[in-house]
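Weekly puzzle thread! Below is a chain. First person to post its structure in token form gets bragging rights.
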Amino acid sequence: MASFLNINTDNGHIHALKSFDYETIKKFQFHVSAADSGTPSLSSNVTVNVFILDQNDNAPVILSPVNANGSAEAIEEIPRNVNAGHLVSKVRAYDADIGYNGWLLFSFQEVSDHTLFALDRYTGQIRTLRAFTETDDSRHKLVILVKDNGNVSLSATATVIINVVEPKEAFAASDVKTVIKDDEENSVTFYLIITLGSVSTLFLISIIVLIVMQCSKSTDFSSKYLQDPNYDGTLCHSIQYRSGDKRYMLVGPRMSIGSTIVPGSNGNTLVVPDRRRTASCEM
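Winning reply:
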């Protein structure tokens, strides 16, 4: 709190360097030490607790109605054939003060016809008191005063202009607003459908690619181990034998006991030259 406080070292007076805001800080404490000039020096200290009192230092702020220029003013159109109790508009306000000072009350500061409109002092709702007649004006100006409950009350005002129109005109204006809103909703829906369709298409393409890759792997695996149509299911067996200067290797299915090998047949027979004899002759 050194930036908020200053103490006089001679007399111990403590002064505030800045103003305190109850909505920001409600209490704080600090320590003060006092020492004499004796030898040895003796000292003592004390803890000081500071409590901030609430003051009505914030005025109400109008949240709605607010126009494009930022001023608290709005124009409302209502059909002439509305009944008593019809909600015309609502004034919304906010006060930064806490507690009792932040309570708000609404009242008419200016109204063109007290018999037509009523204002709820706690909610800020504006409603009709009766139905409109042919003799009533088509334009009404309402100035709403918003006050807080501080000892020195602070306030703000909002202006509501009410145009009373024939039902057809009111319906036309309502249709225009509805069409604009529908167009915005349709645009959002259109982009959402495109996004979902793109995601679904990518997902389907990924599934198809995975299926094709899996099928191709299965085909390659089967082709590697495809059996000979004439294969009878027995394991292959090779038999070697010699005839003269040539050595023969017979490759075929495993032969059962009692099978006969025909040396003169060349089927499934691989002729292997006798390298050992050739080498011995060359030497």
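Puzzle host: Confirmed. Bonus trivia for everyone else. The radius of gyration is 51 Å.
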